[in-house]
Amino acid sequence: MAIFKTLLVIVQVLSALGVIGLVLLQHGKGADVGAAFGSGASGSLFGASGSANFLSRTTAVLAALFFASTLGLTLLGNYKPLASVGVMGAAQQPQAAPASAPAASAAAASAASAPAAPAVPK
Prior knowledge:
Elements: H1 2-25, H2 32-35, H3 50-78, H4 89-92, H5 100-113
Helix pairs in contact: 1-3
């Protein structure tokens, strides 16, 4: 369980850093002024609007991964396993007497305390 928790923490940190980096790389609404000074995206690898779509989709995927890992860590943090009684735990637990045993012992006790009937000769 500890390995799974460590793996989730690593995934969460990497996805958080990825979301931060991708949000900082994206152009805001006021980026049109920057295009006038030679930073236009028309000659980029993804085309004029391809980089925005790629960055926003990747950001959404990383954000979903971040939320899923956070939910997983929350569920693992609240998990409390039952206390183990060990290999011999079943033999150490007191066993309750069956419900019919008290009735049978009461009948035996009353038969023992009752006087024996005299034998009648024939």
